[in-house]
Amino acid sequence: MSQRPDAVVIGAGIVGASCAEALARAGRRVLILDSSFAGGGTTAAGMGHLVAMDDSPAQLALTAYSGKLWTELVPDLPGNIEYEPCGTLWVAEDEEQLVAVREKQRTYAEFGIEAETLSPTQLAEAEPHLRPGLSGALRVPGDGVIYPPNAALALVQRAIANGAQLREGTRVDAIGPREVLVGRERISCDCVINACGAEAAQLTTGLPIVPRKGHLVITDRYPGFCHHQLVELGYLTSAHTMNAESVAFNVQPRATGQLLIGSSRELVGWDGTVNRAIVRRMLDRALDFMPGLALTSAIRTWTGFRPATPDKLPLIGAWEDTPGLWIAAGHEGLGITTSLGTGQLIADLIVGATPAIDPAPFAPARVHATAGVS
Amino acid sequence: MPRGGQSRISIVINGDRVEVPAGITVAAALFNLGITALRMSVSGEPRGPVCAMGVCFECRVTIDSRPHQRACLTAAVDGMHIQTASTS
User: Fold this and answer.
1) Using CB atoms and an 8 Å cut-off, which of residues 295-314 of chain A contact chain B?
2) Do the domain assignments include residue B20?
3) How many domains is chain B partitioned into structurally?
4) Interchain contact B3–A (C-beta under 8 A)
5) In angstroms, rounded to a whole number, what is the distance separating the alpha carbons of residues A164 and A28?
6) For labeling, which of A10, A16, A300, B88 is most exposed (least CB within 10 Å)?
């Protein structure tokens, strides 16, 4: 880039890609730096579930807003993002969970998200491979699935079409006031966006983001085995509670006919090796809900690191300790969904436009508000 | 090339009933019939056995309604139904 960039986005995962896309669309000269390559980190390890999630009102606001942006954008993205509007089924195991399903339906309705409760019979008809005896499910038809690394690349390409530049294999050593350091190179700019996901705290001391490891298993192709993204209602508990480890039933049909099986959560630092014990627990949980999975062949297992925050909300906004620094990180397991809302929020805040949703719950300053409390 | 004394079994390949020697693998039975494209790749290309010892997974066929079974590791048994991918 011969001209000085207005904005330097660090991290070309899907969140950084979305920030770059939104800023370039707003007319800013954007430079994207990635230590490896675009879409290759946590983005490539994730399921790609576009989901409205209601762990908190702020989370639902951001996921609902992002879902709307995805629906608008998908027609303009290439086919290799493998978008499938399959919807989500939140599966209830017992009457208690069915009560929670009805509450969830009311909550979604308040946010204008369509959802319907399925009876046990309707659930069995919708997904014959689920075990008999389940109590019902909430179907959220607006949810979908994408292939995250290609979606991130598509966003980077759109940014580039609006004048952005991408430098891969470029590790940032430090962020200063309105500048970044890459080895001996000093790149000055108006603003820096730290979109380094689980690694964001390595560049910005004080960010409360830790890696939360997850496993995924992918099977061979079994077209038609299931039709929706299937998630047990207990998933929210698994995601919300910061336990040392937990698993939840979460199965996704891919465009190829393959099945993605999750999910697990562990706090083990940066150890990316496959933990066979937790994979066993995860698969047992999946088999409990879908016994027919036992006859499928798993062809690959991998791990990834979700960028987890203490309050389960991402950090989106200015970082007051460093002039010109903005944070767009800490999206835990929802970064694929919330990338678009995050990018638009960051761009609106930087250019001084009014964001479509209240940015206050995501303000990184809340970290300071709780600092010193132990 | 009939051999005296070797018992034969009857299996169904893509809907056609055929007789094959007892003990033969599914992959060998298919090869003897000139069927070498056993499955289709994701991009729609025909695939057949490469290693014939269970490693390459290129010989997968549907056996008795169970997809993705390795033809090279599966012994044919009387009455077995085998479906290869259509290459037409």
Assistant:
1) 295-297, 299
2) yes
3) 1
4) no
5) 8
6) B88
